[in-house]
Amino acid sequence: MLSRAEKLQQIFKEDAVFSAFNAQSHQTLLQQVKYLRFLPQQQILRYQQKLDDVYVLLSGRMQIGWLLSDGEFKVSDYVKMYSVFNLVPFLQQKPLNFDFYAVEQVEVAVISGQVFLEQLQQQPHAMWQIIQLLSERMYGLMEKNRYLQTASINQKIARHLMILGQQATSASQVHSMIQFKMSQQEFAELLNVSRQTLNKQLQYFIQEHIVEWNYSQIRILDLQRLKQISQL
């Protein structure tokens, strides 16, 4: 098992936010970090919170969305990308537009924002790489919006199952069957449909032996069929 510092060093080498920094900058950033641990269902960051530091997901999975006035959490997405998850609001010096909660035990590295910016300003190549990364994410958001506006309900179900399956497994692992936990109510909220509508549409996927869904346990049996169905 890697230590928290070793996990962060690995992210520095592999992630586009940090990989263009030189080795000396990596060491400088490592000296200005603190580590936080969150239990399942614990709030990590809150809506409208303004952050002066850079937050990096080291392990675990988060859900993002909005905590409603009645105490219900409206899920928008799930995050298992081991990278900076507040990069845009940090660089824009804007408050967060989501609440962040731990789905399972989560570890986060908090890097000094001042030191991060100082190192970034000294290295044009690293700055250019982050500009490219933000451009890619903006393009991806536009593509996602187009997809959500034009895809059928079955295509959306297939796409979300693929994404959740990818988040539930390591990229280096090969699985004949992907398994993870999520209730139909939680999945329906991701799609912004009623649980009854979701249950009706899921019958096709179950009858075709593409997925199994028992209580809160999802098994993806045919990932290739999901990919085919999800395509516009």
UniProtKB/TrEMBL annotation:
Residues 181-200 form the HTH cro/C1-type domain. SUPFAM superfamilies: cAMP-binding domain-like (SSF51206), Winged helix' DNA-binding domain (SSF46785). InterPro entries: cNMP-bd_dom, cNMP-bd_dom_sf, Cro/C1-type_HTH, Env_Response_Regulators, HTH_CRP, RmlC-like_jellyroll, WH-like_DNA-bd_sf, WH_DNA-bd_sf. Residues 17-137 form the Cyclic nucleotide-binding domain. This is Crp/Fnr family transcriptional regulator. Keywords: DNA-binding, Transcription, Transcription regulation. It holds the Pfam family cNMP_binding. Residues 151-224 form the HTH crp-type domain. It comes from Acinetobacter terrae. PANTHER family: CRP FAMILY TRANSCRIPTIONAL REGULATORY PROTEIN, REGULATORY PROTEIN YEIL. SMART domains: cNMP, HTH_CRP. Gene3D superfamilies: Jelly Rolls, Winged helix-like DNA-binding domain superfamily/Winged helix DNA-binding domain. It comes from the Bacteria.
